[in-house]
């Protein structure tokens, strides 16, 4: 009888311990499920260096980054020319930096836009091919994509001729940043190297330049390829913050061609 009474008295403590264990198990399960869902999105927003190295090994014909110990990074700017290009040029000039601008052909139809491209070349910048329109290149047929690349190539050649400069190597960046093996074969057949990158602040979606600047600087590594975008008012302020800090850390910022010299 006494033993039974003691057992009854212990029940509240046993129940409390069991409840604590259940709470811990529930919290652990919730954390694990959250991690499973969040981690892929984190890898998209801020891919680990190991993942970038894997991509470069898996697709050696696509440029993600360059394996080097030298503090050199390439700066690439998509969606040029625009009403913001000259302000971006001013920031680059102030910091003694050159970049590779990927050109959308439909944005370079007018005289003013062609003059911007000419002036980019005159100031030592490089022009790459971003097809004719701001659209997912992977959705285009081989024939349509090839036609667009050739049309933009003609615009680029015209800009280099106007600047009295020899044409650069051929670089292509697909709209939306996705490619397929078929696209890769098509692009190579046209004499282009497909260029992606390793440092991307998702600036088309995130308009806060301080956040974008912090993102770029947090991922800064030798051999990196920075991707940012023209046609946005927040790009120039972001570069005003990022470029002096890169210099302070001892980095040289250059074009894709300049970075590839490190290989």
Automatic annotation (TrEMBL):
Record keyword Magnesium present: no
SUPFAM superfamilies: Glycoside hydrolase/deacetylase
The protein's Enzyme Commission number: 3.5.1.41
InterPro entries: Glyco_hydro/deAcase_b/a-brl, NODB_dom, Polysacc_deacetylase_ArnD
Coiled-coil residue windows: none
Keyword annotations from UniProtKB, A to Z: Carbohydrate metabolism, Chitin degradation, Cobalt, Polysaccharide degradation
Keyword set includes ATP-binding: no
Sequence ranges assigned to domain NodB homology in this UniProt record: 71-263
GO biological process, one term: fungal-type cell wall biogenesis
Required cofactor names: Co(2+)
Domain of life: Eukaryota
GO molecular function: chitin deacetylase activity
Catalytic activity: [(1->4)-N-acetyl-beta-D-glucosaminyl](n) + n H2O = chitosan + n acetate
Enzyme class: hydrolase
Protein name: chitin deacetylase
Organism encoding this protein: Ramalina farinacea
